[in-house]
Amino acid sequence: MLRIGITGGIGSGKSVACRMFAVLNVPVYDADSRAKWVMANDLVLRQALQEAFGPEAFDASGQPNRTYLAQVVFKDPEQLARLNSLVHPRVGHDFEQWAQTQQAAGAIYVIKEAALLYESGSYQQLDKIITVFAPQPVRQARVLRRDPHRTPDDILAIIGKQMSEEEKLSRADYVLRNDDKHLLIPQVLELDRQFRSL
């Protein structure tokens, strides 16, 4: 079974592409959503987070205190690296178990969607990588429409923390152009055809 990663900068449309793959009955693992679940439910990770960041890492209901953790790591690269070094391996373990379940169910290939595919090292678990590309002005406009609480400066700050589009493109095996000039559906259908024939 092929394991395909899909990544792209904020506003590139990687989630839209993943919904298209899902319509084609391709199992999709959303690493960002699963990371939240793993942080709340993985006992090994919970203990490590409490040891690293104190009991405030979880709220009274036992859920990760995302506001507190964000405040701790946002302006401290060392603390951010510490958080990622705890969370990413456990998410990788969760993906591995999920992928094995999908393989046992007969999946030909699966998709792992992750904004930080390269930064987390999780690309090493995958056979091929797709980058969803859109120019920065298009991405900014999309995020402003989608998240009206964000400012243009907020979006630029997020983009500044992500791997450059140039590097993502140079490392990708496939590129989906979601720039409002190329139709996305035919590109996804072509990749699906290729993956099913590999």
UniProtKB/TrEMBL annotation:
**What does UniProt give as GO cellular component?**
cytoplasm
GO molecular function per UniProt = ATP binding; dephospho-CoA kinase activity
Keywords for this entry? ATP-binding, Coenzyme A biosynthesis, Cytoplasm, Kinase, Nucleotide-binding, Transferase
Q: Which InterPro entries match?
A: Depp_CoAkinase, P-loop_NTPase
Specify the enzyme's EC class, one word: transferase
Ribonucleoprotein keyword on record:
no
Q: What is this protein called?
A: Dephospho-CoA kinase
Organism, per UniProt?
Answer: Hymenobacter cellulosilyticus
